[in-house]
Amino acid sequence: MCSHQPTCPSAYSADREASHVVSAHPDQGWSLLCNGVLLFEDTGLLLPDGTIVAPHREPIAA
């Protein structure tokens, strides 16, 4: 799916969120990355095979 050089990380690699945004819909709270991952504003993910990755926000520093 990715035509960038160097290619973006796959949907199943640990750094998958570093992929380029293909379509952004901030009004709906999601973006499609070029590796097929749907990235939600709460940091949850939906992988191309339907696997859900729970939100993983960084803890707020006190």
Summed up, what is this model?
The protein is mostly beta strands and 62 residues long. It contains no helices and 5 strands.
Describe the structure.
InterPro entries: DUF5999. This is DUF5999 family protein. It comes from Nonomuraea typhae. The radius of gyration is 12 Å and the shape is globular. It is 0% helix and 26% strand. The protein starts with 20 loop residues before the first strand and ends in a 9-residue tail after the last strand. The chain has strands spanning 21-25, 30-33, 38-40, 45-46, 52-53. It is an all-beta fold and 62 residues long. It has a 5-stranded antiparallel sheet with strand order 1-2-3-4-5, with no helix packed on it.
Return the structural class.
Answer: mainly beta
Name the strands of the widest sheet in spatial order: 1-2-3-4-5
User: Which descriptor suits the 3D outline?
Assistant: globular
In terms of DSSP E residues, the strand content is 25-35%
Order of helices and strands: EEEEE
- State the separation between the terminal residues, measured CA to CA: 41 Å
Gyration radius, to the nearest Å? 12 Å
Helix content: under 10%
Mean pLDDT: 89
Number of strands: 5
